[in-house]
Amino acid sequence: MMTRDIFLEAAIAQARKSLAEGGIPIGSVLVHQGRIIGEGHNCRVQTGSPIDHGEMNCLRNAGRLPARVYRECTLYSTLSPCPMCSGAIVLYRIPRVVVGENATFLGSEEYMRSQGIQVEVLQDEECIGMMRGFIRANPELWNEDIGV
Fold first, then answer.
1. I need a surface site. Which of 14, 56, 140, 146 has the fewest CB within 10 A?
2. pTM exceeds 0.90 for this model
């Protein structure tokens, strides 16, 4: 049996936290030199902010950092980053993104790759199941989150 990456586990914990708060179950962590320096989850429902996606919330919670730190980080997200979140990743030149799954939503992975970012997609069953269940139960809220 393969062990799941501890940083993906942390991102999943953030997704569960959002779900427990009545939000959309997407979580993210920012890792620098083997240590989590930021974590967050989709808080659009909780804060009423249209830009409070999991990755954006994670970056905000990491706080202001020197550019060189971002360039040494890996960002983990339970779901493929949307165009807005991918833009922030590209802007700060985060070199590596680990995606829990892209079966329920394919974000801007090709854009990130075209900008030299290494994108790894794990197709984690828990990430897929959490999103499928949420989308099935909350289609209108999900469509609002992705701008449909």
1. 140
2. yes
